[in-house]
Each structure stands twice: as C-alpha cells, then as structure tokens.
Write a structure and sequence with these properties.
Blueprint (H helix, E strand, L loop, with lengths): L1 E6 L13 E4 L3 E3 L10 H5 L3 E3 L5 H14 L7 E5 L1 H10 L20 E5 L5 E4 L2 E7 L7 E6 L4 E4 L7 H7 L5 E7 L7 H7 L4 H8 L7 E5 L6 H9 L8 E2 L5 E3 L1
Parallel strand pairs: 3-4, 4-5, 5-6, 10-11, 11-12, 12-13
Antiparallel strand pairs: 1-2, 1-14, 2-3, 7-8, 8-9, 9-10
Helix pairs in contact: 6-7
C-alpha cells in the first residue's frame, strides 16, 4: 500500500498547515481535513472510501466540498465509514440542509452521491485485499484510529487520542507493524489543556510510547502550528526506543 500525507497539522496557515487527511493508494481517504483540497479534480474522482476517526471539524470539513465537487462525475456514491455516533453527528450538524445539503438524498435517495457505513472498534474492513482494522481511541467525542495492512506490512494511525492502553494491546499484536503515526497536539506547558481535551503532549507521548513493544518508525501528527519547534524539541528529549519524526505534507509511506 501507499499512504500519502495530505494534511497533518493541528491548524491552518501557510502551505504546510493542512488539517488531518491521508490518501491511501488512489481510492481511500483517512479523515478529510483541509488537506483534501490540494488534490486535483481527477484525483478526487477516484476516491471511493472515506474512513473518519471522529466528528471534529478539522477531520471532516472537506467531505462536504469533496462530494459537492465530484458527486456528479462519479458512477457510484462515496462511502463514509464511521462510528454510529459520528455518523449521527454528521447527519445532524453538517449534512442537514442548514449547513450543507444532505448528499444521501442527492440526486435521489435511490442513487445518492454519499452513503454511510457504520463501523465498530475491532471490525476489519477488507477492500481488494487491503485490510483496515478499526482501533480504539480516547477523545472528547467517540473516536477511533485505524490499522492499514497491505498483507506485507502494516501502518497504525492513532487518530486524536489521549492515553490509550486499549490501543497498545492491539498494536503490540501486529507482527508486521512498520509505521506508527501518533498525535501530539500540545507542548508540555499545556499538559492540563491536553488532558482536558484528551490529546497528548510530549511527556504523555513518552508514557504512551513506553507501552509499544514492537519496532516501528514513529511519526508525529497534529502539531499546533504555533508550537511545532517547542513541541518537537520536547519530543526529541524523550528517552524513546525509536526517534519520533514530525510528519509533513506529501510524506509517502510504502508498506
């Protein structure tokens, strides 16, 4: 599989700061933050599946513009995979005809541009030989992460999460784990905010990585634009078994 980073920032401002979105091969999105907007119209039409971690705006905003832009150009609806609670939030607060049209009804309920597929933690979705496992996450709203398995190697993406013992129980069983993308949204001076918002700061990241029992390349996502240097400096000072690297737009993982 091939995973391209479209956005990995905890905010916007400048070319490098696009919010969370990853393109797996040509047809799968993991989250749909502002980074999706950098894809060409031709690239957008190839996307059949969107796996959402949770309902926060920085992870779902581009679904609205994406479907509006290419819905009429596609032969079938795009499928949004999400927890039942996340789907309910999207229906009530985004695709509700007040904020944006309900594309499950356009152009008709029988032939829509968008459909929802409910998923649950632990479920495995198989798409043309690629396995996507729904991982547990701990956040202020119902949330998940994802494990992508090509058959050769795997990549784990935590999504937005605070301390998460359940995640490591799953990840430590993945024999072909190659990459781990994990969030760190705040610097250590804002640990109280991180705990309140159920995100990680570097000290908490160190505590979490100590639970990882398998070798993997570790990459940091969701850094706040105003504190990238400070947060990464604090991460570099951790005694971690593998040196975490900051994720950047257009980084490509092959696995």
């Amino acid at each position: 599989m091939r995973l391209r980073v479209l956005g990995c920032s905890g905010g916007i401002g400048g070319q490098q700061n696009r919010t969370t979105s990853f393109l797996a091969d040509d047809d799968i999105l993991l989250d749909a933050g502002t980074g999706v907007g950098d894809l060409s119209l031709a690239e957008l039409t190839l996307i059949d599946h969107i796996f959402i971690t949770h309902s926060h705006l920085d992870h779902v905003s581009s679904i609205a513009f994406f479907v509006d832009s290419v819905g009429a150009l596609r032969p079938k609806p795009v499928t949004v995979y999400a927890l039942a609670a996340t789907i309910d939030t999207l229906k009530k607060n985004l695709f509700n005809w007040d904020v944006w049209p309900d594309f499950t009804q356009i152009p008709s309920a029988d032939a829509p541009w968008l459909r929802y597929q409910e998923i649950k933690v632990g479920e495995v979705v198989e798409l043309n030989g690629r396995k996507i496992t729904v991982l547990p996450a701990v956040h202020t709203v119902p949330a998940v992460g994802y494990l992508l398995d090509s058959g050769r190697n795997s990549l784990a993406f935590t999504g937005d999460t605070g301390p998460n013992d359940a995640l490591w129980r799953v990840v430590n069983q993945v024999e072909n784990l190659k990459f781990l993308i994990i969030e760190t949204a705040f610097s250590d001076k804002d640990r109280a905010i991180a705990e309140l918002a159920q995100h990680l700061c570097p000290a908490m990241l160190g505590e979490e990585l100590a639970k990882l029992e398998r070798p993997a390349g570790v990459y940091i996502t969701h850094l706040k634009p105003s504190e990238i240097e400070l947060t990464m400096q604090e991460i570099e000072e951790l005694e971690a078994p593998s040196r975490p690297q900051p994720l950047q737009n257009n980084h490509v993982f092959e696995f």
